[in-house]
Each structure stands twice: as structure tokens, then as C-alpha cells.
Amino acid sequence: MNITRMDLADAGSPERLVLEILKLEPQLPIPVPIEELCLRLDIHEIVPLTTQGYEGGLITTPEKFNGSILFNKASPTERRRFTIAHELGHFLIPSHVPSAEGRFLCKLQDMRKLKGGESDRRLKMEVEANRFASQLLMPPPKFRMDVAFGKDPDIRQLSLIAKKYDVSKEAAGRAYVRFREEPVGIVVTQNGKVLRDYRDSLKFPRLAIPTGALVPAHSLLHRRKHEMGVPSDIDETDAGVWLPVERGRQPAPLYEQVLLQRQGYALIMLSRDAVAADEEDVDEEAEMTSAERLKRRLFSDR
Ligand SMILES: [Zn+2]
């Protein structure tokens, strides 16, 4: 690797930084050697955290001449890699300024923040660090090709991709729903309750089941017996089980696939056909800010 921080001096956004890194290191292997990359970019050391309750941290100065990255050593290695990439994001994104004590401390929940922050500076930094980490560990040019492979969205494919890029299935899933052509939603559940879900709001409608609610009785999770660690077959499920369906309208088919994991966790992949997706189910503007909405209306030719 030849990259230095000087090469990245003009990049301000997470996307731009990743683009520059990929341009300067076109032979960057997969999985991305994240620790080696950090050391090339003025991170002195990558060491375990000693503070309880955090997933990662960065110790630096306001000028950010150099830094130390901290990680939770109790976490699985693939999550650790995401944490290290996230902290590298805080280090490289010029607008991310450390606390008065010269550090960033990030919780596990921070690593999952995907949107928001227009009026919350800290949240905005977390969202940007996550975008940086996701794109750096799953470089879009390669990742897009791997995601497009295969006839239907499938947890088996997602698992292989997660292994290849050495990221958690959840981190891979967040990117998968964006890059897969078909509308896909990924629901993370534990002990029969919905913990969180990932979907591209432009392609996949908001779930009718809120966070914290029980997984519907007619979900494939309950309809069949599942074997731990073995993705189920893909089965059609009545769309109304998961999605808001207007009375008297025939919704597009919804497919469901389940992967039972340890400690009561399960991943549920929901998907629809690319062409038959029921466009009117999706409120394309539901999660945009008013500025984004305005921009969309002004520049959209629809
Ligand atoms: Zn953070």
C-alpha cells in the first residue's frame, strides 16, 4: 500500500473519501485489510477499549495529526472490523471534531445509525462514520456485482457475501437491501420480537409491524420449524402479514426466508419481484427531509 493521508486532503464526505482510497489503492484486496489501511493513514495503534459500555473509540487531538483506535475485544472479529472502519471515518472526515477530552466514544447503537442528524451534530457524525465504514469494507463497485448475482434475493447469498467481505450479516444486509435490484427488507428479531429492520425506503414499504412488537403469527418464522444456522427455503407469505395493504387491493407477492441464529436471534428476509413491485405501496417521500422532498419535486421529471 502506498496511500498516505496527504492524498486524501481534498476529500470531505464519506463517499468522496472512500472513492479516493479506492482510486489510490485499486488493488485493495477483499476482505479489505482495514488495520493495515489505518496504520498507513496515521493511526498509531489499534488497541482494546478499557471503558465499559462502548463498542469503539478514537483518541486524537483537535488537529487530528494522528490517532489511536479502540475496539471492544469481546465483540466478534467481523463486528470489530466495522468498528475500526467507523473510527477511521471519524478520524478522516474533516468535520468530525473530537470531544474536549480529545476523543470519540461510540456505542453499539451508534454503529447502526443510518439516517438523521440534520439537527443533531453527534448523530450526524455517527451516520457519516457508518456510511464510510460500510462503503470502505464493502466497496460499491465490487459489492454491487456480488449482490446482483443469483436469481432471487436469498439469505444464503447474503451469508456468503458477509463471509467474503468479513463483515457481520447485519452489516452486509444493510448494504444488500440498497444494492439488490428487487425490493428487499431485512428484519432482525430476538425471542419472537422485532428488534430492527433495514430496507431501502425508495423500494420497500415501511413495515406494518413496529419495533418491539411480536413477529406476526403467520410469519414463516412461526409457520415452520427452523434449524439453527440453516437458511430456510424461500416461501410466499401473505403481504398483509408484514406490510400495510389497502382494502380491496391485491398486493404484489411477498416472499419470506428465515435464518435462525444463536441467543434467540433470527434474520428474516422479505422480498418482492423486481417488476411486480407494487409501486403505490411505497411512499417515496416518507422518510425524506423537507429539503430533500423539495429537491426531488423540483428535479424529478415525473
Ligand atoms: Zn462513532
TrEMBL record:
It holds the Pfam family Peptidase_M78. It comes from the Bacteria. Gene3D superfamilies: 1.10.10.2910. Residues 55-173 form the IrrE N-terminal-like domain. Transmembrane segments: none annotated. This is ImmA/IrrE family metallo-endopeptidase. It comes from Mesorhizobium argentiipisi.
